[in-house]
Specification:
- Helices cover 47% and strands 31% of the residues.
- The chain is elongated and about 60 Å long.
- The chain has a three-stranded antiparallel β-sheet with strand order 1-2-3, with helices on one face.
- By secondary structure, it is of the alpha+beta class.
- Helix 2 crosses helix 3.
Length: 74
C-alpha cells in the first residue's frame, strides 16, 4: 500500500511540473507578424504556398516568451 501511495505521489509531482500554459494566437495579423519575426524561412514557404500553418501559440520557458508553430508541407 505504501508503494502505491508513493507511486501515485511521484506521478502527481511529475505531471504537475510539466504543465505548459499555451496562449493560442487567433488574430491573423499577429500570427503573421510572429511567424515573420521568429520563423522567416517558414514564412517564405507559407507565402509561396508550400506549407500550411495550423496553429501558432506562445508559452513561457526559463522566464522568456517562446513562439511555437504547427505546420505541414502541401
Amino acid at each position: 500500500m505504501k508503494r502505491l501511495i508513493l507511486l501515485f505521489s511521484v506521478i502527481t509531482i511529475f505531471s504537475s511540473c510539466s504543465v505548459i500554459k499555451k496562449t493560442h494566437i487567433r488574430d491573423y495579423s499577429e500570427r503573421i507578424e510572429l511567424i515573420k519575426t521568429n520563423f522567416p524561412e517558414i514564412y517564405e514557404l507559407y507565402r509561396r504556398g508550400e506549407v500550411v500553418i495550423n496553429d501558432v501559440y506562445t508559452y513561457e520557458k526559463d522566464g522568456h516568451e517562446k513562439v511555437h508553430i504547427n505546420y505541414y508541407y502541401r
